[in-house]
Amino acid sequence: MIIILKPDADKEQTALLKGKLKALGFELHESRGINSFLWGIVGDTSIIDPDYLMANDIVKDVKRIQEPYKTANRKMHPEDTVIDIAGKKIGGGHFQVIAGPCSIETEEQIVKVAQDVEASGAGLLRGGAFKPRTSPYSFQGLQNDGLKLLLEAKAATKLPVVTEIMTPEHLELFNNVDVVQVGARNMQNFQLLKALGKCNKTVLLKRGLANTLEELVMSAEYIMAGGNESVILCERGIRTFETSMRNTLDISAIPMLRSMTHLPIVVDPSHAAGIRWMVEPLALAAIAAGADGLMIEVHNDPAAALCDGPQSMTPEGFDKLMVKIRDTVKFFGKTMD
Ligand code: PEP
Ligand code: MN
Predict the structure, then answer these.
(1) How far is CA 307 from CA 13, 37, 77, 155, 244, in A?
(2) What is the pTM of this model?
(3) Closest Cα to atom 6 of ligand 1
């Protein structure tokens, strides 16, 4: 970290700040030029908030030269992380497809979709029980009853399950859930992230609607700092000025995240576009850009879906797409086991 001091910085205040930084265990390298006065700070600067320094009158600017995330940083862990979810591996050349309805609606629906997506080659089943809806009058999910139905579908197939958690108080209900999803709207719910850091479940962390990649990785860092390093990142489209789609899929996020972190990266083309026919091109593009997995919404009767029908694929459509996904994954040198 570099601290740029004002050329006329008060000597007493300068000595005070220097003392504080040294007391925190940092080494300071001073450089005084004709027009500049800088300190190079050596040590683990991820613990310093640049705003804390900027609040000093003598400080002109603060520049980070190291990322504020540590455990998630690829520099700390050059190899890709491979996560094993009940025998389904993701990351480091292992590719997984997570498929299922937006919301769990009935036993018949979730079990049928589970069996269909399993037959098509999906590795994990998704289904929302606690739904974050923009309107309080929209279907909120079957909640605890939905979780029970999801576990029935898990028992009826060999698929590990992924479902969204909205509050730390619900964690005890998620005992038999394999992957806990943090939805886009909760990406910076720090209490939730901290609680998930203390549990031993894989977390699928979705990018917020208007969050930077650094903010996404910092949210992963919250979970990892608590001791849980089993985190999968998910790009699900971001808000832009474009209105013809629900969101804009940020394909660039995939190679950029890959350079920033060693964590597996999943792409959700369903929420990205919000349009069924766009799921295929976006899914294939995501594989080409280096994604480690896809999350795709599939419903047995999209026209009757209680949530996200317009973006949900039919089991038949998904089956056809899986043929292309398998070929593309193979072409890019990854395996789907
Ligand atoms: C979902 O996966 O059902 C969901 C609500 O997604 P997101 O948080 O990305 O909107
Ligand atoms: Mn949905």
Answers:
(1) 58, 58, 39, 24, 19
(2) 0.94
(3) 183
Per-residue model confidence as pLDDT tens for the chain (337 residues)? 999 999 899 999 999 999 999 999 999 999 988 888 999 999 999 889 999 999 999 999 999 999 999 999 999 899 999 999 999 999 999 999 999 999 999 999 999 999 999 999 999 999 999 999 999 999 999 999 999 999 999 999 999 999 999 999 999 999 999 999 999 999 999 999 999 999 999 999 999 999 999 999 999 999 999 999 999 999 999 999 999 999 999 999 999 999 999 999 999 999 999 999 999 999 999 999 999 999 999 999 999 999 999 999 999 999 999 999 999 999 999 999 8
**C-alpha 10 to ligand 1 mean position (Å):** 52
CA of 53 to the centre of ligand 2 (A): 42
Q: Which residue do the tokens 């910092």 mark?
A: 218
Ligand nearest to the CA of 308: 2
What does each C-alpha distance from 293 to 22, 60, 227, 287 come to in angstroms? 45, 44, 24, 8
Residue nearest to atom 3 of ligand 1 (CA): 102
Show the ligand 1 pocket: residues with CB < 6 angstroms: 102, 128, 132, 183-185, 206, 236, 271
**Rounded-to-integer distance, Cα 124 and Cα 234, Å:** 15
Query: Which two tokens mark 45?
Result: 């600067």
Compute the distance from residue 204 Cα to the ligand 2 centre, in Å: 15
The closest ligand to the CA of 312 turns out to be 2
